[in-house]
Design goal:
Shape: globular
Number of helices: 19
Radius of gyration: 24 Å
Number of strands: 6
Strand content: 5-15%
Order of helices and strands: EEEHEEEHHHHHHHHHHHHHHHHHH
Strand order of the largest sheet: 1-2-3
Oligomer: single chain
Distance between the termini: 53 Å
Bound molecules: s-citryldethia Coenzyme A
Helix content: 40-55%
């Protein structure tokens, strides 16, 4: 709890000649925050911080990241170790329970995921009524939200059923994603198999065919596990903060996650992985001239930004991008796409940008989205499904953050303040006396 981390240090604030002392919170990794919970009561002032660039919303035991040093740890474990040694489900257990699972705990979770892999047959008819070009993220958000109608018992006393609720959602989001893809392609649905692992089952449901059985490639399965692990949590990013804020009004997990999916779909957030591939394909189609795109990204009069570059927190290389970049060559080879021109363009873009004053001055480096699409594309996943893949990976993190918020004894509904800058008090004017301003 926040009060456990109040240090002896104080911050001094002087307003209208009066000096106020504010407690300083120090986290387990040495991060410091000024505790302003009593600021308005004591000073009459609030703080303002558009985009919450300098504002913490909570303390959390789940993920630590250091943007200057390029560090990302889940529950104290380095992302590089987890991506190298774990399956996605192992990391999902870690995020939701706080420790790596024993073999029995992992087997129990895998068994639950297998048991929950189907969705209610009535839900399948929903797919028939979305417009053909409906964005997959809006379908996913709608379908996840509708789960609470099929499992109302999960919403009445959520924490009693947390493990079931969490496993049910992690398993079913995979089936919903695959089914929405098959429907969009006009292909028959492929149901999950009980003898397949989480990622293998997803690939099976996406790509198997009655006339051309899908052969699961071990390297592709390992790469998918790695990608989902790297996306699994990222402290209080836009979509996670959305899940917490919506959940703070005590709506159920499924509805809170549905809101997070909607936030993730934005091109400045999770939608960037799709924008990166579209940018690389455009450069390739135009003869590969990547330098002019770097110049466009620097031009303040041009709204174009180098998708997959820059980050609110990382002011050095995003550690996830480093791991994904290293995995690209192996997956491309496994998928028979060695020498993919888009990867060469991406590497050239990175090299030019990282030597350019504009990017250096602003600490703009490749982020998680810059290389991930190269791998998704090599696996055969269409670019309009890339952000859906981001949501599949981020789900265990959202669930862990929602539970931490729900469990917090100091927790209360999220309700930021504002500073009003509109017209001061005006006398009412009857409509017949009004003139156009
Ligand atoms: C994710 O928060 C998270 O943790 C998110 C995420 C997660 O795991 O949940 O890591 C996932 O969302 C990764 C980010 C994906 N988005 C993109 O790749 C879109 C392109 N990137 C940018 O739009 C931007 O970098 C953001 C949105 C990621 C961060 O924006 P900020 O922190 O608000 O920074 P800013 O927009 O104020 O930029 C600072 C400067 C500006 O220039 P000046 O006004 O100082 O002259 O850097 C420039 C920006 O114009 N800039 C870019 C740029 N990103 C920032 N210029 C060109 N290309 C870019 N990509």
């Amino acid at each position: 709890m926040l009060n456990d981390f109040i240090s002896d240090q104080k911050a001094e604030l002087k307003i209208d000649g009066k000096v106020y002392q504010l407690p300083i919170i120090i986290g387990t990794e040495g991060e410091k925050a000024i505790d302003i919970r009593k600021l308005r009561t004591e000073t009459g002032c609030i703080t303002i911080d558009s985009g919450y660039m300098n504002t913490g919303s909570c303390t959390s035991d789940i993920t630590f990241l250091d943007g200057e040093k390029g560090i990302l740890n889940y529950r104290g474990y380095a992302i590089e170790d987890l991506a190298k040694n774990c399956t996605f489900i192992e990391v999902a257990y870690l995020l939701d329970h706080g420790s790596l699972p024993t073999q029995k705990q992992l087997d129990d979770l895998a068994r639950m995921l297998t048991g929950f892999s189907m969705i209610h047959e009535d839900m399948i008819h929903f797919f028939d009524h979305f417009p053909p070009n409906a964005p997959p993220m809006s379908i996913l958000s709608s379908m996840v939200n509708s789960l609470c109608n099929f499992y109302p018992e999960m919403t009445e006393n959520p924490l009693e059923n947390f493990d079931l609720m969490s496993a049910r959602l992690i398993s079913k989001i995979r089936t919903i994603a695959a089914f929405s893809y098959r429907k969009s392609m006009g292909q028959p649905l492929v149901y999950p198999r009980h003898d397949y692992s989480y990622c293998t089952n997803f690939l099976h449901m996406m790509f198997d065919s009655p006339v051309n059985p899908y052969e699961v490639n071990h390297d592709v399965v390992m790469a998918l596990n790695k990608l989902l692990i790297l996306h699994a949590d990222h402290e209080q990013n836009c979509s996670t903060s959305t899940v917490r804020l919506v959940g703070s009004s005590r709506v159920n997990l499924y509805t809170s996650i549905s809101a997070g999916i909607s936030a993730l779909g934005g091109p400045l957030h999770g939608g960037a992985n799709q924008a990166v591939i579209e940018m690389l394909e455009e450069i390739h189609a135009n003869g590969g001239g990547y330098r002019k795109y770097v110049e466009r990204a620097k031009d303040r009069n041009d709204p174009f930004r180098l998708s997959g570059f820059g980050h609110r927190v990382y002011k050095s290389f995003d550690p996830r991008a480093r791991v994904i970049k290293a995995a690209c060559d192996q997956v491309l080879e496994a998928s028979g796409m060695s020498g993919d021109p888009l990867l060469e363009i991406a590497k050239n873009l990175e090299e030019v940008a990282l030597q350019d004053e504009y990017f250096i001055e602003r600490n703009l480096y490749p982020n998680v989205d810059f290389y991930s699409g190269i791998i998704y594309r090599a696996i055969g996943i269409p670019s309009n499904m890339f952000t859906v893949m981001f949501a599949l990976g981020r789900l265990p993190g959202w669930i862990a953050q929602w539970k931490e918020m729900w469990d917090d004894p100091d927790g209360r509904i999220g309700r930021p303040r504002q500073i009003y800058t509109g017209p001061t008090k005006r006398e009412f004017v009857p409509i017949q006396d009004r003139i156009e301003e």
